[in-house]
Amino acid sequence: MSKVLAIGASRNIGYYSSLRLLDLGYTVTFLLRKPECFDHDAAITRFVKDGKARLVKGDALVKSDVERAWAEAAKGGDDLAVDFMLFTVGGTPSFKLTKGFIIEPPNLVTQSLLNVLETLPADSPDVRIITISSIGLTRESHNALPRALKPVYSYTLTAPHKDKCGAEEVLAHAAGWTWDVRDSAGEEILGTSWADRVPEPASLKRLVVIRPALLTDGECAADKPPKRAGKEAYRVKEGDVNGSWTISRRDVAHFIVEKVAKNWDEWEGKRVSIAY
């Protein structure tokens, strides 16, 4: 039995990824503030009925709720190990003319991730962690954006991207990756003594960070016949993809399941960008 803990999967990338995993036979445990969000979702409820989808009521900002979700995800099978942690937390933004899109709390992603890493169970030492970030967060990545997108990222997405930048800083610390201190999200996002809450530096190896381009609600191009023989539906590259404009949430989910989960050794320990 392959077991997944999905946090932030009530919709969007996490949701589409979880459906694919369930269809492949994985058992997926969802941590949800409102489990009733799936009450009328036939695609999920059929898996709830057969025990393959488990719904745990809780908030990723509450450490004890995350601990409880880990414990539930580990149940069943011959051992108590969780195979994958899928972290796709992202708040519902609101727009303010002077600030662009904002989320509440402003450090939702970073603090939720800190809770996940702080509660990593000893029974799952080999859990593989997949997290969603974004292109354009760091100075280097922002410089690689198409010129027309730079104002969009600088103005409208500053607040949510600062939060995701904090999450990437946490992961870079735990994985032993280089991190430019000029890109730090600061104590407002990270909090004080945050490094004491995560694994020792360079100890987190079974990790993939995915940085999508500007997300759309389009169809999954990868599920359709290619328009041209030999042409991939999307581009993926360690670091930044040149000319990164958009990518659909469904295609990011396709990459997570069909590429990363199925070919883990190829992607482990990498920060990759994905775009059309």
Automatic annotation (TrEMBL):
Gene3D superfamilies in alphabetical order: NAD(P)-binding Rossmann-like Domain
UniProt feature coiled coil, ranges: none
Molecular-function annotations in GO: biliverdin reductase [NAD(P)H] activity; riboflavin reductase (NADPH) activity
Listed transmembrane segments: none
InterPro entries in alphabetical order: NAD(P)-bd_dom_sf, Polyketide_Oxido-like
Family assignment from sequence similarity: Belongs to the avfA family.
Protein name, entry field: NAD(P)-binding domain-containing protein
